[in-house]
Amino acid sequence: MTMSNSFYGYSLIMTFFMLLLHAWSQLTPNFYDKTCPNLQNIVRNEVQKAFNKENRMAASLLRLHFHDCFVNGCDGSVLLDVSGGEKFALSNLNSIRGFEVVDGIKSTVERACPGVVSCADILALVARDSVVVTRGPSWTVLLGRRDGLVSISVNGTDAALPSAFDTLDKIIYKFNRVGLDEKDVVSLSGSHTIGLARCAAFSNRLFNYSGTGLPDSTMDRNLLSQLQKLCKDGDQNQTTLLDQYTERRGYINIFGNHYFQNLLNGKSVLSSDQALLSSSKTSNWVQIYNDDNDRFLNDFADAMIRMGNISPPSRSRGQIRKNCRRVN
């Protein structure tokens, strides 16, 4: 019986990776070279404009790609305006943003190359350029995704997306189920070197952590006091920098490994970030990236390539949406 279960589990894993490899093999960096040769310049310029207008937007656009790929693969489904769909899941509601920027980029691309470029590919390019504009690493984005036709249910979305309230084991499980490992958990968590967090995502640490009646003892005392004041009136939409290291040093929205110094000093905002130190499977990578910024940037770029190729619809699957918010 044990052997049968093990074989069944092994077969499921092999099936997943064969499907992933098949999808990956259909993507190519030069997919639009003939049909939309100026695509990457268009996206890069539009991301720069959005960043110049509001530098928080880089983190928001990067997060859209994360939240798209972890739910039913990188298919642009997070952009769909569907009642009861992904946008309305607890993990996304009043949280993900930047849809208007994506709409604008799509419109510009459509004027240059009508009916050619998928919203899913735009999200993948936007994520890369959002990191670059914050002085992070670049990478070659493989292209050729098509857009999905459905938006997963609220419950399905919340079950798939890693949450600020998840235990480390649950986060690792959610990464593993899409083909990512513990190293990817840590390197991709490093994206929290840019952007903001709402009180709703971390107030659980401030007053009654895990039902103890006390704040989270792993949080730096000065940071705790600062965040308690911010969230004391119950306004869950108040925001603070995810990377508290940066404010005093002029590095706001500058991509780098200072996020890992925060973890080691108890100055991370989210409990899911601080949890990376609770197991040697992840804490060893925290220390490596704290000591070696170049290693972090390289591994982050590699992990983004793998994440960007989670079950992308291609060839006959899906469609090229004219409007990213609805199917054709």
TrEMBL record:
<feature type="binding site" description="axial binding residue">
    <location>
        <position position="192"/>
    </location>
    <ligand>
        <name>heme b</name>
    </ligand>
</feature>
<keyword id="KW-0349">Heme</keyword>
<protein>
    <recommendedName>
        <fullName>Peroxidase</fullName>
        <ecNumber>1.11.1.7</ecNumber>
    </recommendedName>
</protein>
<keyword id="KW-0408">Iron</keyword>
<comment type="similarity">
    <text>Belongs to the peroxidase family. Classical plant (class III) peroxidase subfamily.</text>
</comment>
<comment type="similarity">
    <text>Belongs to the peroxidase family. Ascorbate peroxidase subfamily.</text>
</comment>
<keyword id="KW-0560">Oxidoreductase</keyword>
<feature type="disulfide bond">
    <location>
        <begin position="36"/>
        <end position="113"/>
    </location>
</feature>
<feature type="binding site">
    <location>
        <position position="75"/>
    </location>
    <ligand>
        <name>Ca(2+) 1</name>
    </ligand>
</feature>
<dbReference type="GO" id="GO:0140825">
    <property type="term" value="F:lactoperoxidase activity"/>
</dbReference>
<dbReference type="InterPro" id="IPR033905">
    <property type="entry name" value="Secretory_peroxidase"/>
</dbReference>
<feature type="binding site">
    <location>
        <position position="246"/>
    </location>
    <ligand>
        <name>Ca(2+) 2</name>
    </ligand>
</feature>
<dbReference type="GO" id="GO:0006979">
    <property type="term" value="P:response to oxidative stress"/>
</dbReference>
<feature type="disulfide bond">
    <location>
        <begin position="119"/>
        <end position="324"/>
    </location>
</feature>
<feature type="disulfide bond">
    <location>
        <begin position="199"/>
        <end position="231"/>
    </location>
</feature>
<comment type="function">
    <text>Removal of H(2)O(2), oxidation of toxic reductants, biosynthesis and degradation of lignin, suberization, auxin catabolism, response to environmental stresses such as wounding, pathogen attack and oxidative stress. These functions might be dependent on each isozyme/isoform in each plant tissue.</text>
</comment>
<feature type="disulfide bond">
    <location>
        <begin position="69"/>
        <end position="74"/>
    </location>
</feature>
<keyword id="KW-1015">Disulfide bond</keyword>
<feature type="binding site">
    <location>
        <position position="86"/>
    </location>
    <ligand>
        <name>Ca(2+) 1</name>
    </ligand>
</feature>
<dbReference type="GO" id="GO:0046872">
    <property type="term" value="F:metal ion binding"/>
</dbReference>
<dbReference type="GO" id="GO:0020037">
    <property type="term" value="F:heme binding"/>
</dbReference>
<dbReference type="Pfam" id="PF00141">
    <property type="entry name" value="peroxidase"/>
</dbReference>
<keyword id="KW-0376">Hydrogen peroxide</keyword>
<feature type="binding site">
    <location>
        <position position="71"/>
    </location>
    <ligand>
        <name>Ca(2+) 1</name>
    </ligand>
</feature>
<dbReference type="InterPro" id="IPR019794">
    <property type="entry name" value="Peroxidases_AS"/>
</dbReference>
<feature type="site" description="Transition state stabilizer">
    <location>
        <position position="63"/>
    </location>
</feature>
<feature type="binding site">
    <location>
        <position position="193"/>
    </location>
    <ligand>
        <name>Ca(2+) 2</name>
    </ligand>
</feature>
<feature type="binding site">
    <location>
        <position position="162"/>
    </location>
    <ligand>
        <name>substrate</name>
    </ligand>
</feature>
<keyword id="KW-0732">Signal</keyword>
<feature type="active site" description="Proton acceptor">
    <location>
        <position position="67"/>
    </location>
</feature>
<dbReference type="InterPro" id="IPR002016">
    <property type="entry name" value="Haem_peroxidase"/>
</dbReference>
<feature type="binding site">
    <location>
        <position position="243"/>
    </location>
    <ligand>
        <name>Ca(2+) 2</name>
    </ligand>
</feature>
<keyword id="KW-0325">Glycoprotein</keyword>
<keyword id="KW-0106">Calcium</keyword>
<dbReference type="InterPro" id="IPR000823">
    <property type="entry name" value="Peroxidase_pln"/>
</dbReference>
<feature type="binding site">
    <location>
        <position position="77"/>
    </location>
    <ligand>
        <name>Ca(2+) 1</name>
    </ligand>
</feature>
<keyword id="KW-0575">Peroxidase</keyword>
<feature type="binding site">
    <location>
        <position position="73"/>
    </location>
    <ligand>
        <name>Ca(2+) 1</name>
    </ligand>
</feature>
<feature type="binding site">
    <location>
        <position position="68"/>
    </location>
    <ligand>
        <name>Ca(2+) 1</name>
    </ligand>
</feature>
<dbReference type="GO" id="GO:0005576">
    <property type="term" value="C:extracellular region"/>
</dbReference>
<dbReference type="GO" id="GO:0042744">
    <property type="term" value="P:hydrogen peroxide catabolic process"/>
</dbReference>
<feature type="signal peptide">
    <location>
        <begin position="1"/>
        <end position="25"/>
    </location>
</feature>
